[in-house]
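Cross-posting from the chemistry board since nobody answered there.

I work mostly on the small-molecule side, so proteins are not my area. We synthesized fe (ii) ion and want a rough idea of how it might sit in this target. Sequence and SMILES are below. Is it possible to get a predicted 3D structure of the two together?
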Amino acid sequence: MERSFLEESLLINNAINVCLRMFCPRDLYTPAHCKTVSLFSGHFGAFLNLSREEINLLQLAGKAHDVAKLAWSDNLLQGKKKDELGDDYSNIFHHPKRGASFLFDLLKEHTSNFKWVGLILCHHWGYSKEEKHYPPLDDIDTQRSLKEYSWDLEDPKFKLMVGIIKVADSLHAAISNRVYREDPLPKQIPEAIAEIRGKMGTVYHPEVVAALENTESQIKSLFEIDSQLHSF
Ligand SMILES: [Fe+2]
Ligand SMILES: [Fe+2]
């Protein structure tokens, strides 16, 4: 009997949970960050009236978006500077592609819906085509993979869902105790929102920025509850 995607997503969710457990005890930050990005992404999806299945895709993609950081060295995870990293530095830019291909290989026998993997592949894309993207927009492998994951680059729903993951990711990175960034101190939520608003239309999708501004108090509550669970 064929399973629905909602049924399959329970299995996918379990597989992602096992992957996230593999980060511990070496790196406690990344699994907590992934879970919060999933939470924020689901929240934005619901606010923007996406369907139950689309929200599910966002939650899975958010939870697994940085899974390839499992293969990062301690130097990368500890936020060493570019000149101390040597060749290791390039791994930063490979993690969306490696994570997507790892999850596709892991789960290809168990599900036929890989739209959530496509969102992982593109989770560092900016909104405007002029922004820097990794993997690059015109990368042949990326375009082939997106077709395999049933996405069309020009599909507005794809752009919106990539934009949701992007805002959720940047927001949590800004307000949490993340080691690998230039400013080691977490920002307050209003300050982080102002920074995201400043890049609306270039880095960030305008509809998602509007959702963020309209739900600031809900984001604050979600983050407070989540911080009690994960302490980041
Ligand atoms: Fe990432
Ligand atoms: Fe992330």
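Reply from a structural biologist on the board:
Welcome over. Reading the output above for you: Residues 65-66, 95, 123-124 surround fe (ii) ion (ligand 1) (CB under 6 Å). Residues 156-175 form the longest helix (20 residues). Happy to explain the token format if needed.
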